[in-house]
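Board work, copied verbatim: Cell cycle checkpoint protein RAD17
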Amino acid sequence: MANWKSKQKSSSWQPPTFDDFDSSPSPPLEKKAVKRFREPDALSHLGKKTPKVGSALWVDVYSPTTRDDLAVHKRKVQEVESWLVESMAALKGRKFLLLTGPAGCGKSATVRLLAKEARLNFVEWINPTTTAYNSAFLELENAWIPEDTVRSASQTTQFWDFLMRASKYRSVCGTGKMKNLVCVEDFPNVFLRDPAVLHAMLRKYNIRNIGVPVVFIVTDSTHQQSSLKHLFPPDVQQELSMVNIAFNPIASGLLVKALSRILSIESASEGRKMQPLPTRETLQILAETSGGDIRSAVNALQFATKKNSSHLEGLFTGSSQTRKLTRHKSLNKAQPRKDVSIKCDNLDGFAAIGGKDASLFLFRALGKVLYCKRNQDCGVVEPLPKHLQLHERTPLLENPESIYDKTSMGAASFSVFLQQNCLAFFADIDSAAQALHHLTDSDVLAAEWTGREVLEDYAASVTIRGLMHANRGIVSSGGWRPFTRPQWYSVHKETRQNVLGLKDEYQISLLTLEELTTVMVPLKAKILTSEGRG
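↓ predict structure ↓
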């Protein structure tokens, strides 16, 4: 009996199975108590205090908690909410939602808030930055182990496993009845390089009946790999029955309301009083210059108040130029539109505190170049000699390079629009000839592909400055002139189609494309024409 008890006591623990890294026998355990410790890497976040509000970003601290806090149009919120209701009801064609719009327009904040109201577990995909490893590998860096391999899962496999886990299992932190809602905003790089992999995965996921709804958030970008048409072409959206909801930049009125709410909460907090508070006109300028990006506006406001809230207006206003901001909406509809004159000379102060660079729409940028407004009050700053008095101009109100920097177009595309619309803004043939001379110089700078990347900005500067210098301001006050789309695009498209047709017809020909277009095809057309006449 005693022997059986001793055997049972000795076999109460299973033999260890984690001795693969070292074949040497383990040292005998000492009977004195061993102090347990936690790995600093894995559990370093436990026991840490939450960062204080003063050191945290206001974007995170004052994130919207109710619908009234959202600075998004109510119609967009209702569209997202209706999709959530239909997707939770397992309606067909309501498994994928595609949210598009510029940065900082409240796409992710809207989804998070509505998921919280619907008691859904918000599961967000985050790209893994590093591969997990065991610290014991560092000790065996120079040791050789037979048939030892290092295995790591690809991004595609990790993303598919993430979707499957989110579909099958629910969060252990919440209640068991909370369903999951998957959100993907940070796309894996493999999908950006080859979107067909993502499309095949979504088709496979769409067939499964247990899949949870997925929200894709795509921010507007000029980069082709991150664009909406590259990731989700129209045919893929139609095949997968994706619901596309496009968000617009946040209106300045909603931005001012959100900024005022944050300031009121911050000023009422103990130990963080700001006296005096920024005026509403200052917040209006901040909202206008942020370009509808609430994240940029809140960050700029926080950084500005760190400096001195009493001088906050000085970061955005100046004394050289008066800018009129029109309030299109008033509290009383019977109240007439009111113009608020706000001094604003330059927005360098806004960029200095982390603000967003103000962007210009295409037609506004074209108008600033072609209408070429000048400061007629100050006159010529530095008179030129007699033989150069023809080139004397009053100072410009706009910096040519600043206009180009604020556009989201390349130098070639912007120059094409200027070439198409510039002739209507010159009063005589001499001014038009001078402008075309500068356009020719710009084309020469960007002609060679080897230096195009370096000289592209210089070519744009020559184009803009040349057109503005050639415009002497005689026709600038002649009223409004419509802008048209360049004919270059249709001509270029037709040229490509003709070239492809020639290549298909003369596949076995040894002639070059230049010889085909300049010799063979014209000669053949002339022969066929003469035969038809005969």
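The CA atoms of residues 316 and 350 lie 6 Å apart.
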